[in-house]
Design a protein that fits this description.
Number of strands: 0
Strand content: under 5%
Distance between the termini: 63 Å
Number of domains: 2
Number of helices: 10
Structural class: mainly alpha
Shape: elongated
């Protein structure tokens, strides 16, 4: 076992947890596996986080880092490219998606993540009187649907697309969801 400060130990546990949840999903990831990967005793994981669910919540803390949108009339290309890059570069978001399929706490975390971070963007971009929550939800369907097909189900045509191709396909739909008049 490696001697570390409390901060270093906690960071090592979180890194190991993100990797285990990403690789195994919530149900199959174990405290013991996280501890082994972090090179510590499983009791230390429990000491710092108390339970697997609390460990997951800490490991799934995620900032979408939504960028400034230069063209408010056509936000889709900026958001699509950003989200494709986020899915590609961060195991935590993919782990959260995998876990959300079978674990209610993970599903709630994913819902909150998109509502809290994408909701304000939708509110800023939607036409007057439009329901921002609905629009943010529709954008989330596209982003999570593509991520599910690309990273979880590994649907060959979607996996084969470059980041640029994927963003180009997503962009117009995201723009429409955020800026078009209500269809009613």
């Amino acid at each position: 076992m490696v001697r570390r400060s409390a901060e270093e130990t906690k960071a090592a546990i979180l890194l190991a947890a993100r990797e285990r949840f990403a690789a195994d999903g919530y149900e199959r990831a174990t405290i013991r596996a996280v501890a082994t990967e972090a090179a510590i005793d499983p009791a230390m994981v429990m000491r710092y986080f108390g339970s697997k669910e609390k460990l997951f919540a800490a490991a799934a803390a995620f900032d979408l880092r939504i960028p400034e949108i230069p063209d408010k009339s056509d936000p889709g290309p900026t958001l699509a490219r950003h989200f494709v890059e986020r899915w590609e570069e961060d195991d935590t978001l993919r782990a959260l998606l995998r876990a959300a399929v079978s674990h209610e706490a993970a599903a709630e975390r994913m819902r909150a993540l998109f509502a809290e971070q994408l909701g304000p963007v939708a509110a800023e971009l939607a036409p007057a009187g439009a329901t921002a929550a609905t629009r943010a939800g529709l954008v989330a369907t596209q982003l999570m649907g593509v991520a599910m097909c690309r990273y979880v189900l590994a649907l060959p045509p979607v996996v084969a697309m470059s980041r640029d191709e994927l963003a180009a396909w997503l962009g117009p739909t995201i723009s429409r969801y955020l800026t078009a008049s209500d269809p009613n």
